[in-house]
Amino acid sequence: MAIATEGETIQVHSYKHNGRIHRVWQETVVLKGTRNIVIGANERTIVTEADGRTWLTREPSICYFHAEYWFNIICMLREDGVYYYINMSSPFVYDNKSLKYIDYDLDVKVFPDMSYMILDEDEYADHKKQMGYPDVIDQILQKNLDTLLSWIKQRRGPFATDFINVWTSRYEFYKQVKRSK
């Protein structure tokens, strides 16, 4: 399996269970790339929706993807603190300079005080029927949602204060390198 290389710019592709593209982030800088983890960063990157509409991300974000967990975490760096948006999703695969995953609709929004909201349960139920998610997907997602909520409560992984500081500094380094070229 290919591994994302630190410092390279990749795309992030989100698919739906039926194999159709859902959303593409045009440019994410790889801050760490291993077989199991990709940590990336982007800001003001173009996002293309399945219907062709595009929009620009507003704030710098640190993105955490894991090859074993069924979620990915977007850490949005705002003036009033770090907000987290978590997509319940398949583990990532890396192929041809693109990180790819299946979005399973359920999302979790975490606020700077670590309070959270589970979002889009209706969308998950609708898509489960429309796309025929097998029951095993429910079981996997529930187990991984429990793991995620434990991480939030324990401030583990991307929810640890030092995580943001370390990876924001690394991102600033790569922005300086890019400017000096």
TrEMBL record:
SUPFAM superfamilies: FomD-like. Mg(2+) 2 binds at residues 105, 107, 120, 123. GO terms for molecular function: magnesium ion binding; nucleoside diphosphate phosphatase activity; ribonucleoside triphosphate phosphatase activity. Keywords: Hydrolase, Magnesium, Metal-binding. Residues 18-156 form the DUF402 domain. Gene3D superfamilies: FomD-like. This is Nucleoside triphosphate/diphosphate phosphatase. It comes from Sporosarcina limicola.
